[in-house]
Amino acid sequence: MKLRLMTWNVHRCVGVDKRLDVERCARVIAAAKPDIVGLQELDVGRKRTGHVDQAHKLGELLSMRSHFNAAMHIEEERYGDALLTTLPERLVRAAPLPGYPKIKALEPRGAVWIAVTLPDGQELQVINTHLGLVPQEQRKQATALVADWMADEKFTRPGILMGDFNATPFQEPYRIISRTIADAQLQWPGAPMSTYPSGFPFMRIDHMFVSPGIKVTRVESPFDPEARKASDHLPLIIEVEIPPRA
User: What's the pTM?
Assistant: First the structure.
């Protein structure tokens, strides 16, 4: 089974040109033709972005089903991450990640997990997340993903972890995760691609990790003018082959 997967921090659909444009983000996603998309920094019902449910709107524009996890609630307003797919799916978990209580002003973080049914009947487990900015909270969150989320008996192979980890391969949160699940960009012969900032990407902080048995056949990061303007991150896309169920 061949699949295309994307992870992208859409920056609440506000581009580097300061323009709010959900449709532009939808066009960038559609151009990549992914089967599964993990998005970070989505607004749902927030005044600052016109009270639009961005997760639902993007799903509608792309003819995909969406599952949203609100990492942050402000009265009726929500902010968080989502998984979208064209394939049959079910929500497994949507929940917060641990914070760092010593710093009160830190933005809450979370993750969302779906099980996607492939044509041969096996399920692909997919988790999308967005880690914090402070090293102490990043370590706690990365550890939770490894020791709680991926240690869950329901996280069976094949499985993929994706998102904005706010950590390069030289930092501890990345190392905590990569000791358990493989960095997709290191599973193919091309050079790893940086995705941040979108205008001149030199930081590799958006990642996809794949369980054993998943073959990575291609890695892409669109660099066309619309993708570079639509967010302060570029999308990261991988193509994979998943062996048939035994």
Answer: 0.97
